[in-house]
Structure prediction request, 386 residues.
Amino acid sequence: MKDFVYSYPTKVYFGQGAAKKAMTAELGKVGKTVMFAYGGGSVKRSGVFDELCGMLREAGKEVVEFSGIMPNPTYKKVQEGAALAKDKGVDFILAVGGGSVIDCCKIIAAQAVTEEDIWNMEFAERRYPNRFLPMGAVITASGTGAEMNNGAVITNEETRQKAGVLGAYADFAVLDPAYTMSLPQKQVISGAFDTLSHCMETYFGSPRQLNLSDEIGEAVMRNVIRNIRVLLKDSGDREARSELMWASAMGENGILKIGKVTDFQAHQIEHQLGAYTDCNHGQGLAVIHPVLYRHMYRDGVEQFARFARNVWEISKEGKSQEELAAAGVQALADFVKEIGMPTTFSEMGITDKSVLKAVADSCNLTAGCCRKFSREEILEILEECW
Ligand code: NZQ
Ligand code: ZN
Prediction:
């Protein structure tokens, strides 16, 4: 095994009444002025906003509202939040929403305590912030696992990049499946596919011989597949949503990544597609993964064959390793169709084919990927996704 150090800074409160437990235990540790950050208003419609504000007021906090964090949050929105936090003397950020809200707040937490430009610091100078406003995360849409890491995916509209920016870890995360019940089924499935993607992107990184992290990863993948199927029959199944909520956190809490260099090539392509089209993250991944893996599996036959056997439960009987590996990729493609996710970019509503070249030219090529892709082959993959 590769050497590692493991510790985790985010305390998780999971299950019914988790918000109340978290607020009771945590709010005494933070200052008086709390920024309540959220998205386009689902938290107001669901009642989560009033419930949490009540808890904040009960704890004697002053609430500063920061609303309108959009899916695929922009760097401009980060700056707006940081300016508000500075202006109001915010002591603590409560981020309430899905991955977009949590990510935006991770960088607000960094930008609010410095005059330096965080984007410039990280991408031009390769320095990373180490001072942050403290923050907590309340999840209303699971899948990204954003509550369990300090990476934020932010769109810089000026540079046309959707990139991973390092920011604050949430000090605590509230994972109450009840808060996800108002999320439309389409977004639930899209989030769950994102979780599956995080597991696959870790699994197909290196090394690719049998190890504990991958065996745990196989279990998480089977769990996600099973619970998506449960939700297809009954979108209100609370147990399935609970399982998916914890699986989402498991994908990004570092456990599956121990001893591995992750792949995340599909994510790198999807992020740039997002930069050019503002598309839905999980949907973009659903289209890209099967096509990318058809180009990749011969370079990682053993691991793809293991994926076929242990995740999709495909018999090896009568198949060569390569045929088994290909069958695993086909099972993934079939699953995308089965769960009603798009299989082409045009189905996602992307109309401008000329963005594909820009995406191929600007996406990162990852070190953990089993195939060393050229820009030409990435473009070929993108064209096959059309
Ligand atoms: O904005 P509101 O009104 O809240 O509506 C949101 C949004 O329109 C809605 N929603 C959230 N909770 C709801 C709800 N609607 C009804 N009831 C609820 N309970 O859902 C829509 C999508 O929300 P968003 O936060 O954008 O979705 P998701 O959680 O999938 O996050 C996507 C973002 O996370 C990034 C993606 O790239 C994308 O920008 N990712 C972050 C990662 C990380 N930090 O580790 C990893 C991922 O790979 C991903 O890249
Ligand atoms: Zn993702």
Q: What stands out?
A: The chain has two domains: 11-180, 185-385. The chain has a mean pLDDT of 97. The beta strands are 11-14, 33-37, 62-66, 92-97, 135-139, 151-156, 161-166, 172-175.
